[in-house]
Design goal:
Bound molecules: flavin-adenine dinucleotide
Number of domains: 3
Number of strands: 21
Strand content: 15-25%
Oligomer: single chain
Structural class: alpha/beta
CATH topology of the largest domain: FAD/NAD(P)-binding domain
Radius of gyration: 23 Å
Helix content: 25-40%
Largest sheet: 7 strands, mixed
């Protein structure tokens, strides 16, 4: 224990019926089960004989949504059953063939289509529907805004382009979130928050990117544009976070989903069992991914451009990595090429002296930092020079009310707020993102109250 090489420590039970102790054991076993084994039961069955990028994307989406999923070959009885269901429903039979809940099986669904089938479509809200609050993005910031908004009586709609959970949902284990002394997987944290918000009445629509925002006239609802549909809302919380930077090596980009993954890709980790895998990046997310992968892979190499991890990674993770015999750090090394037959098999690495080495690779995980997801945001919402949304005192003075800046999370557009990683000056942590999502809700209330008190005649 004195060297910190402890997987789990619990205090001695206080009595025979110590619920605290029993809970801790149960949670630890449950976390272990979620991160190491595949599901034993399934509610989604996928029929696929080959590993393809399409299959990888579907599994990743379903895993991040917390849906127990299994992949069957077409020769397996469960696979044959799904094929028979598709044929009797008059559906085409192409792989991957997905049977979700009791819906008819769908051939080669896009993530958007699968999301619509499984989690509903905003069209269902109806043409005249106006929400009190629309939250764009369902990472920790959006989830917190949804929990607090819905629990405080606001009709709340959450629009998410991918799976619920954001970056946090891709983290194998978040160890520094308040109240979870043994850590919690990002997916489980996100899905708990989704259930919590849903129980208060928030409505979630996954796998539907928001494509535009048209601010309303003063006091009027804003319009949020999705492909083929619009949602109207009196207030908006922008919580669209950040997305991963790309490696920019074409041969590697072609293999995304086939052994190459942006982010920790929890589901892909299991398929790396017994192989040599590579993680690119020196931040905490790369460190966590390496720790998680070391449970499965024979070896994990962390490739970084700098001399060491000390400037970019938390000390606790560096210590864990140093103590892990399966992980090596390769400084001043980058990936310049890669390839394989049907999936990634090799990488070409450029070392500190410019020397090129070809290595066998069972997986490549790219955690290269991030840029804000603001492509859909109109120009009237002010951004800083790096594209993050300006709020509060950072908003240019021409948008102030005399000497008074907008409220802390308010943007240049009245009734539009920003929370979490997408916000200029944010801390880039789960706790700060969820704190900001929660803190946006009183500002929404104040804005809606002001609109109700001083109705502006429509133009
Ligand atoms: C692998 C990894 C591990 C991490 N580990 C930790 C940790 O241990 N502790 C910690 O404190 N922090 C950790 N972080 C950082 C933390 O996850 C982020 O700070 C946090 O998730 C930010 O939350 P957010 O809601 O602001 O944004 P995000 O989590 O980025 O969520 C934004 C959401 O908006 C969605 N979106 C984007 N554009 C659109 C659009 N046009 N329409 C609809 N939806 C859209 C995205 O799909 C995404 O789901 C980690 C990050 C990563 C990647």
């Amino acid at each position: 224990m004195s060297t910190g090489r402890v997987d789990l420590s619990l205090v001695i039970p206080r009595g025979v019926r110590d619920e605290e102790f029993h809970n801790a054991i149960t949670e630890s076993l449950s976390d272990w089960g979620w991160t190491t084994g595949g599901p034993v039961v399934d509610v989604v069955q996928i029929v696929a004989d080959d590993e393809t990028a399409e299959l990888g994307a579907l599994r990743d989406f379903l895993d991040r949504m917390g849906i127990p999923t299994r992949v069957y070959p077409s020769t397996h009885p469960a696979g044959k059953d799904v094929v028979a269901r598709a044929i009797s429903a008059g559906r085409p039979v192409e792989q991957p063939l997905v049977a979700a809940f009791d819906h008819d099986p769908i051939s080669r669904p896009s993530i958007g289509k699968l999301g619509r089938v499984m989690f509903g479509d905003p069209d269902a809200l109806g043409d005249g529907y106006v929400a009190d609050l629309a939250v764009i993005g369902a990472g920790p910031a959006g989830l917190a805004a949804a929990v607090y908004g819905a629990s405080e009586g606001l009709s709340t709609v959450v629009l998410e382009s991918e799976a619920i959970g954001g970056q946090a949902g891709t983290s194998s284990m978040i160890r520094n979130y308040l109240g979870f002394p043994r850590g919690i997987s990002g997916m489980r944290l996100a899905q708990r928050a989704r259930f919590q918000a849903s129980r208060f009445g928030a409505r979630f629509f996954a796998a539907r990117p928001v494509e535009g925002l048209v601010p309303g006239l003063p006091g009027e609802p804003h319009t949020i544009r999705l492909e083929g549909f619009e949602v109207r809302a009196r207030s908006v919380v922008i919580a669209s976070g950040v997305s991963y930077r790309r490696l920019g090596v074409p041969a590697i980009e072609d293999l995304v989903g086939l052994g190459v993954n942006y982010g920790a890709a929890m589901s892909a980790a299991r398929s790396c069992a017994g192989t040599d895998v590579f993680v690119v990046g020196g931040g905490n997310s790369a460190g966590q991914a390496a720790m998680h992968l070391s449970r499965f892979a024979r070896s994990v190499s962390i490739l970084i451009r700098r001399e060491s991890l000390h400037e970019t990674m938390s000390d606790y993770l560096i210590r864990e990595i140093e103590a892990n015999p399966r992980i090596v750090v390769r400084p001043r090394t980058e990936v310049v090429d890669g390839g394989g037959g049907t999936r990634l098999e090799w990488l070409k690495l450029k070392g500190p002296d410019g020397e090129l080495t070809k290595v066998h690779a069972g997986g490549l995980f790219l955690l290269l930092g991030a840029k804000p997801c603001v492509d859909w945001i109109p120009d009237v919402v002010g951004l800083d020079e790096r594209g993050f949304v300006l709020t509060g005192r950072d908003v240019p003075p021409e948008h102030w009310d005399g000497d008074v800046p907008p409220a802390a999370l308010a943007t240049t557009v009245p009734g539009v707020f920003a929370a979490g990683d997408v916000r200029s000056g944010s801390m880039k942590r789960v706790a700060s993102a969820s704190g900001e999502g929660a803190a946006a809700v009183p500002l929404v209330h104040a804005y809606l109250d002001a609109c109700a008190a001083e109705p502006v005649p429509s133009a």
